[in-house]
Amino acid sequence: MTSRLAGHLLVECLIAQGVTHAFGVPGESYLAVLDGFHAHADRIRFITNRQEGGAAFMADAQGKLTGRPGVCFVTRGPGATNASIGVHTAFQDSTPMVLFVGDVASDARDREAFQEVDYAVFFGPSTKGMAKRVERIDDARRIPEYVARAFATAMNGRPGPVVLVLPEDMLTEMVDAEPLPRLEPVQSWADPGSLRQLRERLLAAERPLVLAGGGGWTPQAAAALQRFAENWQLPVANAFRFQDTFDNHHPLYAGDVGLGINPALARRVRESDLLIAIGPRLGESTTGGYTLIEAPMPRQKLVHIHSSAEELGRVYQPTLAICATMNAAARSLEVLTAPPELAWTAWAAACHADYEANVDVQNGGIRLPGPIDMPAIIHSLQAHLPADAVLTNGAGNFASWLHRFYRYHGLVKGHKTQLAPTNGAMGYGVPAGIAAAILTGRTVFTIAGDGDFLMNGQELATAVMHGAHSIILLVNNASFGTIRMHQEREYPAHLSGSGLVNPDFCALARAYGYAAEQVLSTEGFEPALQRALASEGGTVIELMLDTEVITTRGTLSAIREQAVKNGR
Question: What is the residue-wise DSSP string for 158-182?
């Protein structure tokens, strides 16, 4: 065996696990690892970020796109705490990820040394924590063991983030250990008895509805889900910000169950007599604040299929609980034999008709103040973006336009096409889009608000440095729009803290090396998008939106009027 620096061995372990890119901000606490990236630059790239939150978001995007752990490196203390937003996002989104934290040397530990943090306490592995596991590597010879366990933990069961802490002095030891072989996620299959019960429930149903989403989906699993839905003529809705799980163009698609849900779909969920949840953990956003599906005992018969036994029964008491990974579950479901006639074909057609009506701009009667028609903007995206384009967003009311009007082709076409944080983290879209451009080379489109953009806009420098190109639609309404909406509802006309004075975004984008232009009308957007698609570099399109335009359900004026009527 060859003796080398422990930091080099760590990089070799990542290569053995198939990692081609690692994101991070360099720190003196893991210089030996950075030297390892230099030594193996032909096999793995270290992507230098400008802030650890952006790096962690990029690693989360990597995990979502590849199905294998995204990798992020940060230094101790401030570096780790900055990165925690990405760890929390990966946890709530069920995204596999490994965060490596350079730490103080062993002889300085537990003295509140420079930038010292107790990471086991801070990241707190638990159902309410931020990570599935937090471990420190004190023995350099065990680096292969710890890395392999981190990857296994991140991928198996409910996917999620793992934190590995790296004492600075450990990384500079000479060691002759070897990397362990590449790990693949374990497939957990549904037991035959549960599948027979599911079939019996289906045969007895009149208004069944499938709710698909969560982590662990692959194109193969999505294709199997589609065949299951077609065999049984089941309407399928996607969980919040997992809109690419089922093809939105399919005649059985019913829409997305999340914030700003189609009221007609909300009624369908409530009226369903058999809800088959495949993959989602049924969190607050997907259940309408635990009202569409009441906790702990749903009105509907609930079949909950999830990759983690710990998730089943944690919030809801299902009629039937099935522990299975998505690939195995979907492949088992697609071979369930359906009868020649089904009682709910009209129900399924009506569910899809509700969706079509909700995305039909002409019949929707949406009239917005100002010269910008947001539904028309999204329809332009649909017309010009390639089917395999990756669309990303952070958090804010601006995202509701994309969620409602854009139709994702979905994983069934072979590609992950939506990157969005189910935990509602602002600042996610820009770095996630840049990561997607670096990793896939596909067209990447990001929609961001003005407040959202400024949380991680510095990563445009990362994009230019590493030759990544993304198109960013920056919706500028001079406010934290979501908070403004809530204020107008709860404290009408009492503006406090949500107004913004913004920089010249086009000048800022050009300073980073992106092209930029400002759009003041709906008619100006389509040619600007075409120029951006034809460009060899990244582009920011600043869309000037009236502050009155807040949600797809109404303007600020309507919200104020309703609040006044309610006596607020």
Answer: S--EEEEEEEHHHHTSEE---PPPP
